[in-house]
Structure formats: structure tokens, C-alpha cells
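[SOLVED] Predicted holo structure with zinc ion

Edit: marking solved, answer below. Original request kept for reference. I posted the sequence and ligand SMILES and asked for the 3D complex as C-alpha cells.
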Amino acid sequence: MNTKTTPLTKLYDEKKQFLGVLLSPEFWEEAKSVIQPLLDKQDEAQESEAPEPIGDWKMLLDYWDFQYPPDTRVECEACGNTTEDWTKPEGKTFRLKAANLGGLVNFQCMNCRARVIKRHFKDHYRFECHPYAPAKVKP
Ligand SMILES: [Zn+2]
């Protein structure tokens, strides 16, 4: 077995399909300052392009069994951004990121990028705000 570390190893599957590359730790140390910003940019592009999972929200509405009617208010504790109706274009200061039947609805504040979770309980809901923290380069 070859124990010498090569900076870059190309990986193939059994059908000789090119899967990607493996970087040696040493090479990664040198390359990450160049590569990480590109990865961050990809993340951002994906975030802004991913369609909102409106189907999941509609499903939650269809199966709504909380003791109050659904509302579309969202507020961000981090920057004070609020909207009475995130589904309307003029209220588009939040993006829906996820919704599930358990009553967890996730938004991203378009103002400060905080993650806002609207957590529905039987007889009330509350907001949880997680201020945006950029992904750190792992050492
Ligand atoms: Zn905010």
C-alpha cells in the first residue's frame, strides 16, 4: 500500500465514474482559504435558490389540530423584523425553510439571516430565534 500522501487523490466508483477528489490534510490547510469562500458562495446560492417548501406548510394547514386558527405572523427577535403575513409578496421579509406536521415551522429572516422557528403547541405558539452564525472553517 502506498503510504505517501499525495495532495490530491481522485476517487472513482467501480464503474470508473469520477466521484470527486480527496485532499490531503496538508493540502487542505493550504487550499482552504481559497476553497472555503467558494463553498460558502455555493451555500448561499443554494439557500436563495431553493424554493420554499410551501407544500409542507399547506400540509400542516390541512392537518391543523391546534386550538387556534393558523396565522402567518413571523417575528425575528434578533433584528426586530416582523411580518403579519409571510405568504404575501409584501411580507416577504422571511423565507419559509421547513414546516412539519408536528407544528414546527422554520423561517429565515431576510434582514439578518437569523433562523426563526415558530413552534406550535396545543393552545399557543412561540417564536425561537437563532441569530445567524456563518459556517466556520473547521480546523
Ligand atoms: Zn432578523
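OP edit: The chain is about 25% helix and 30% strand. Thanks to everyone who chimed in.
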